[in-house]
Design brief:
By secondary structure, this protein is mostly beta strands. The protein has one helix at 43-49; strands spanning 4-13, 18-24, 34-35, 62-68, 73-79, 90-93.
Length: 104
């Protein structure tokens, strides 16, 4: 389910490798489908900008970097507001993420 503002998103194909970010809890899933181009500024900012509902359990305390190869198609837009969280941050949805893209 895409949670992009008013379902306004753009499908793009990467023409070069791209560094993207994901915020997770300590034991969260580093290969989840939602990422951002914006380097996270901290847990609170990430929760607000990405509208991370705290009922999901994501405390956004760990930053995961992923190097996405060229040629990959993604969907990009703005995180929609929900449950009092304003959203508005860059949000990227990738249908499938390879664990080898995670930078250790």
């Amino acid at each position: 389910m895409l949670i992009l503002l008013e379902a306004a998103h753009t499908q793009k194909k990467l023409h070069q490798k791209k560094l993207l970010y994901r915020v997770i809890s300590k034991n969260g899933n580093p290969t989840g489908n939602y990422l951002t181009r914006a380097k996270p500024r901290g847990p609170l900012a990430s929760v607000i900008d990405s509208s991370l509902d705290q009922n999901w359990g994501n405390t956004a305390t760990k930053i995961v970097k992923l190097k996405i190869p060229k040629g990959i198609k993604l969907y990009e837009g703005v995180a929609a507001p929900q449950k009092g969280l304003v959203g508005g941050g860059n949000q990227i949805y990738l249908p499938k993420i390879d664990k080898n893209w995670v930078i250790k």
